[in-house]
Amino acid sequence: EIARWRRRLGVDSGALRVELDETDWALLRLLQREGRMSNKRLAMNVGLSASACHARLRKLESGGVIEAYRAMLNWRLLGASFDAWAELSIVSGSSEAFAVFLAEAPAVRSAQRLAQPNAFLVHVVASSVDSWREFLGAAQRAGFTLEVARFNLALDCVKAPSLGPPRLRVVA
Predict the structure, then answer these.
(1) CA neighbours within 13 Å on the CB side: how many for 78?
(2) Model confidence over 27-36: pLDDT tens digits?
(3) Buried b (16+ CB within 10 A) or exposed e, 70-103
(4) 3-class secondary structure, 115
(5) Residue 171: is its pLDDT beyond 50?
(6) CA nearest neighbour of 93 among 138, 126, 131
(7) What is the dihedral of CA 2, 45, 27, 62, to 10 degrees?
(8) What is the pTM of this model?
């Protein structure tokens, strides 16, 4: 079973940073589908006692495999009709300082530093396009000159993020 999941994920067994057995993978799959599943139900599904299941979960958490438990919100129902992805380049200003700025920006749902120098992919969710203008103005007031390389409005979500282990290709 472990070998099958590693093949399915495209993970080279020698490249894993944390050694997981079949039961660990089963727990991760169950939690990805239903993060609020009780420890008792998790234990029953993987054939462990509740205390053994709890110990495994704590090991996965302390080892950094499970980073957090979160609720996935429907932003549209909460009034967010503006959902956009922007690839930004910093023309002037510090990349490190801009990363801090992004982490504190309320409309920014996520941000990734890209391989290009001083480039970021930013996901903005807000009530209107005015929030995007406010974000750009705040960045300028903070001393950043930005170039918007690409900008796309999301029409709808066809696959929710993180609903299963990613298909990894680990290169040594």
Answers:
(1) 7
(2) 998 998 888 9
(3) eeeeebeeeebebbbebbbebeebeeeebeebbe
(4) coil
(5) no
(6) 138
(7) -130
(8) 0.69
